[in-house]
Amino acid sequence: MTLLDPRLTPARPDLAAAHLRGVVEAARYVEGTPWRVVRERAGVTRTPDSTAPLTTEALFGEAVTLYEATEEGWGWVQLDADGYVGWMALEALAPPGAPATHKVAALRTPVFPGPSIKLPPTALLSFGARLAVTGLRDRFLMTADGGFVFAEHLVPLDRVEADPVAVAARFLGAAYLWGGRSSLGLDCSGLVQAALTACGIACPRDSDMQEAALGHDIGFAGDLSSLRRGDLVFWPGHVGLVEDAGTLLHATAHYMSVVREPLGPALARIAAGGTPVRSVKRL
């Protein structure tokens, strides 16, 4: 049978997606059912355990395919956006409902129960979260879930940004969070994915996937003047965005934050830790 990436393949020895019949071996095959995320952010883990390490997150309104639901309240899912597979708490999911029409373009935005900023918000949604908008009242867009969001914080789903680096820079100061994808905390590849996706560029989840899938290798040999804005610098297990020939933007555990760092010293610091640059990819 074909060896497939388990991060992107809904298959286990006991259970696999029906479309993988004949591709992978499993005790049984099931058709998945569509659901959507109804929490501000929903963690995805490799095992159905609330103490397990986070592998990624899904944001409010994102679609998932559910392949198994356990009595203990866990769902084995695949995220529609990037194909990532793992376990998610069932309480974070609901039936699909109205199709999303808009996405959050602000770093984060409150959802109010009525068209007033003085009401206590019911949720705080991150950049990239998806909503179904049903109308406009004063300065607020109404959602199919009964919420009200400041209209200027949302854009239509098909709106694309022009500059991934400018998008990434909005996250400066956000906390570093292993597996995170939201403005409340994200990791290096989560930052790159958020920035490229906002610009209409399909982007895988993890840095090794991004290195394999994105752009072309420019054959970087240490000359900083050869770098351009938007180049992706890859180390084993890490990725950052070149802001200009002297500056790197990245989410890093070294500072536990999204930072703007002088590129030369950053390269030297990371290399001194035993991980020299592996490639630089240009989109």
Quick tags:
6-stranded antiparallel beta sheet; 12% helix; thiol protease; endopeptidase fold (from Nostoc punctiforme); 3 domains; 5-stranded antiparallel beta sheet; 25 strands; 36% strand; SH3 type barrels; 4 helices; 283 residues; mainly beta; NLP_P60_dom; C40 family peptidase
What is the element layout, followed by pairings?
Blueprint (H helix, E strand, L loop, with lengths): L15 E2 L11 E2 L2 E5 L3 E5 L8 E6 L3 E7 L4 E6 L5 E5 L3 E2 L7 E3 L3 E4 L11 E4 L3 E2 L1 E5 L2 E4 L4 E3 L3 E3 L7 H6 L11 E2 L2 E2 L1 H11 L8 H7 L2 E2 L14 E4 L2 E7 L2 E6 L4 E6 H10 L6 E4 L1
Parallel strand pairs: 1-2
Antiparallel strand pairs: 3-6, 3-9, 4-5, 6-7, 7-8, 10-13, 10-17, 11-12, 14-15, 15-16, 18-19, 20-25, 21-22, 21-25, 22-23, 23-24
Pfam families: NLPC_P60, SH3_16
Protein name: C40 family peptidase
Organism: Ancylobacter oerskovii
**Structural class estimated from helices and strands:** mainly beta
Describe the global form: globular
Order of helices and strands: EEEEEEEEEEEEEEEEEHEEHHEEEEEHE
Mean pLDDT: 96
**Count of all domains:** 3
- The quaternary state of the protein chains shown equals single chain
- Measured as a percent range, the helix fraction is 10-25%
The CATH homologous superfamily name of the largest domain equals: endopeptidase domain like (from Nostoc punctiforme)
Enumerate how many helices there are, as a single number.
4
Pick out the low-confidence regions: none
CATH fold annotation of the largest domain: endopeptidase fold (from Nostoc punctiforme)
Instruction: Going across the biggest sheet, name each strand in turn.
Output: 20-25-21-22-23-24
CATH class designation of the largest domain? Alpha Beta
Q: At CATH's second level, what is the architecture of the largest domain?
A: Alpha-Beta Complex
Protein name: C40 family peptidase
Family: Belongs to the peptidase C40 family.
Keywords: Hydrolase, Protease, Thiol protease
Domain NlpC/P60: 158-283
